[in-house]
């Protein structure tokens, strides 16, 4: 997954975040600073909501919110050991890392909103994609049906002009069947 948020912006956000908010566990600040020290790693960092649904997630909390201080999720395995998370990140530098941050009033903190991305692993996104696909299919079907109707009207007119009663009846029946379809 390619990053749509520039690395510079992510680093700037994290620096400001670490200055404005005190994290519940200091190891989290150390882990975030490690990520900021490597531009290639930062390219693979994505700030999302509900990160636990992603293949590899860090969930980090600041003081003042009633959430778990830290958790690392990888393919349904969860640990609260920041050192294990660090080693996994260090050993698997080509994997995307999804970070969920908990702090007071995140929706009122513009730097956070600037780096927040859609979570591609949320089931709702799949459902929305399926709805959009069905709408596109319906539109395609309607377009094809409209084209066939116009073509039949044109051919019916031609049969009438040629006084071809047999072709007219055949095309009129086709048109009735087409209009009877859903």
TrEMBL record:
Gene3D superfamilies: Uncharacterised family UPF0302, N-terminal domain (3.40.1530.30), Virus Scaffolding Protein, Chain A (4.10.810.10)
TM stretches of this protein: none
IDEAL domain residues: 139-175
InterPro entries the record matches: IDEAL_dom, UPF0302, UPF0302_N, UPF0302_N_sf, Virus_scaffolding_prot_C
Family statement: Belongs to the UPF0302 family.
Protein name: UPF0302 protein AB3N04_02030
Species of origin: Alkalihalophilus sp. As8PL
